[in-house]
Amino acid sequence: MSTPLLEIRNLSIAFHTETGVVEAVRGIDFTLAKGETLAIVGESGSGKSVTGLALTRLLPEPPARYVSGEILLEGRDVLKMKPDELRRIRGNRIAYVFQEPSTSLNPVFTIRWQIAEAIELHRPEVCDVDAEIVKYLELVGIVNPRQRMNDYPHQLSGGMQQRAMIAMALVCHPDLLVADEPTTALDVTIQAQIIDQLKVLKSQIDMAIILITHNFGIISGIADRVAVMFRGKIVEQGPTAEVLRNPQHPYTRALIDCIPKLGQRRKRLTTIDHAALEAL
Question: How far apart are CA 79 and CA 71, in angstroms?
């Protein structure tokens, strides 16, 4: 049996605050195969983004503390890596696309400059940097890439900014792309375009994806498996179609009930009783 690309074992993460210790992630386990897409779904504060950032130890220590567990990248524990090893996997082996592209891109540098910096850091063997930038901007669906790469972030729409962020992540040839709420700041039409673009890229590039989202409605066409997080724990996981068709946990059912359905009217959404679910 081949080694998984990523394996999380009994991972627990706490934050030390002025008011006490907050357990953000509590004993979670999951695996990710090469080329697979896993959706991590849950409401705000459930521990999704903390889990994503922990994969390359991007959480500042302190206040964060890795209480227990292992983060195995092809068998090597990220939690035991030295700083220079971590720098080599950040962006190079595991790349990120975050929720708000306008705050991820530097407003004082052109798109070309920012993607070129990533190439120079992680792929110094590239001779024609401009050709590589054009190639990846074209790959993510940006029209006239040779012209647009000289634009500043404010000259691009939100959807184009997010496409530029995806190009910046892909140009490093990562094994894993962590997309943390990549469509939340965009309108519905652009959301669909970005998800479709990720699906196309997945088929073209041998790359795994972790899609972090609160929205069950966007995962069915892209995710192979789903892990549902509630208050720092994974309460249910399995093949996406199976979980959507037959959710086992009441929290999963409540999240799925939030998906709008054509021809169906509801006076109000299902109330999630956090105390009752915590007792399960």
Answer: 6
